[in-house]
Amino acid sequence: MDISVGDRLEMKKPHPCGGKVFSVLRVGMDFKIKCEACGREVMAPRRKIEKSIKRIIKEA
């Protein structure tokens, strides 16, 4: 999957705050993503994030 820093991800399930869109801050074995609604930063394994992505919103 081609995901890079600065991309926005729409997830299948919402964050507890209700937001579904996250921005990518770090890519590697772990992803660091930030909720666009509340600003909370989350680190999770690559495999878990890739499985829960609904669509990728590319940033130019």
Q: What's the arrangement of secondary structure elements?
A:
Elements: E1 8-11, E2 21-26, E3 30-35, E4 41-45, H1 46-51, E5 53-57
Antiparallel strand pairs: 1-2, 1-5, 2-3, 3-4
CATH topology name, in short, is SH3 type barrels
Largest sheet: spatial strand order: 4-3-2-1-5
CATH class: Mainly Beta
**On the 0-100 scale, what is the average pLDDT?**
93
Order of helices and strands: EEEEHE
Main sheet attributes: strand count, strand direction, barrel closure: 5 strands, antiparallel
The SS-based structural class is mainly beta
- Ranges where pLDDT stays below 50 over 5 or more residues in a row are none
Please tell me how large the radius of gyration is.
10 Å
Helical proportion, percent range:
10-25%
- The number of distinct helices, counting runs of at least 4 residues, comes to 1
User: What's the CATH architecture name?
Assistant: Roll
User: Overall 3D geometry?
Assistant: globular
Record field, number of beta strands: 5
Quickly count the domains.
1
Straight-line N-to-C gap? 17 Å
The percent range for strand residues is 35-45%
